[in-house]
Amino acid sequence: MNKDCNILINQEQNVELTTTETTNKQNFSLDFKKSLPWVIFVVFLSVLNETVFNVATPSIATQFGLQPSGASLVITSFMIFFGVGSVIYGKMSDTYRLKPLIIIGLLIYCGGSLFGFLAHENYSLVIAARIIQGAGCSAISALMMVIIARYISPENRGKAFGILGSTVAFSEGIGPAIGGFVSANYHWAFLFLIPLFTLLSIPFFYKVLPDEMPGNGKVDFLGAALLVIGVASLILYITEPRWPFIVIGVALLGWFAVHIRQSEQPFIEPAMFVKRKYIIGVLSGFVLFCTGMGILFMTPLMLSHVHQLSTDVIGWILFPGSMSVIAFGAAGGSLADKRGNPFVLLLGLFLLIISVLTISLLVEKSQWLISAALLPTFIGLSFIKTAVSNSVTQTLEMDEIGVGMGLYGLASFLSEAVGTALVGKALDKRILDFSLLPTVTEPSAYMYSNMFLVFVFFILFGGAVYMSVFRRG
């Protein structure tokens, strides 16, 4: 469950708040037919890069002799810097010129990708490359939304966001199949080369984007650094429990809490933390998205360890479910408009729980049966994200949406990083490696079956947190 269409919607809401003001400042419009294909091209490749590595984790773990928690760092390192970077670039777009920001972001992204390919035999350097990738890729996530809101004419803007949403969904859907195919038939390191195609877009953006005047805002780089290093330290502690990690993490996050109360333009507005309904909505999303990412991270490992499947077959097993989001994503939004967000969330919870319980019971059965059982997982997660995103938005005043949804998006990214790290560590410890369900007789499947049961508990807990304040709506 990566950076998906609902995060795209959140970013659209953020940038549209300043569209009118920006349009008045910038009497400039891009040619819709010439510019949108390049925007779609860059976004497609950036989202693809996020999804292909999830399927490749079994191959990466095998090459480096990693436990699941070690393999999880390939995912979490990218997510942390991607999430924080998206907020930073979004804020920088109001202060600095857009053209150099995009070009610098693309160069960082591709530089990290090339570095990762060349250094693929060294685990530590691969993690460093994923961090650089995340820092660069976050520019695409944030700034492509700004381009549409700022430089696409109002009559074409809605169409552009709609096409971009479909692009994100399609890229997420096709990603597992491509990642599995490349990893199985070539080498997982070739996945690092996919982002290099985005270099083709630099001449276009350099040529067509205007040299607008810089703004007067200020970016809280210190706050961003404290947050990202603090969170990264805590996640490292989950992966490798050494006391310096937790001491550094707690100290930096404490400093961050003090800093944002003293800064004139803080990275996160502290006033948002006193809005009870908003915070509970964000927390419920954190628990549910954390659980969802844990499921999606563990599933390829389970298919590899229990069924001894290659990554290309794993990719095709995930493919129907991931593609189903395209068909059912819009349905969730329509249902929310007609029946309300709580109804959509409960429907999503029901589908997700049924799916997870089915996989828990049949974890050692036919892999294609598991593929069918995964369909409700992807659809349920899509419904849940739609309901939570809409509900959180409704707790905010118009002048709070930019800040509020920025914090919500950041929490969503970080929740997925935490979910991946926690599941990886739980698999390392093998604390659930015992026989429980009578339908599971293969010892290699015990741990995975029981983990799926644990996921049900967290799904119910996250749903209960949500329903405690959003019973109607």
From TrEMBL:
Domain Major facilitator superfamily (MFS) profile, residue spans: 35-473
Spans through the membrane: 35-57, 69-89, 101-119, 125-148, 160-182, 188-209, 221-237, 243-260, 280-301, 313-331, 343-362, 368-384, 405-427, 447-469
Keyword Transport on entry: yes
Cellular-component GO terms for this entry: plasma membrane
InterPro entries: MFS, MFS_dom, MFS_trans_sf
Membrane topology: Multi-pass membrane protein
UniProt entry keywords in alphabetical sequence: Membrane, Transmembrane, Transmembrane helix, Transport
Domain of life, source organism: Bacteria
PANTHER family: MAJOR FACILITATOR SUPERFAMILY MULTIDRUG TRANSPORTER MFSC (PTHR42718:SF9)
Full protein name: DHA2 family metal-tetracycline-proton antiporter-like MFS transporter
Organism: Anaerospora hongkongensis
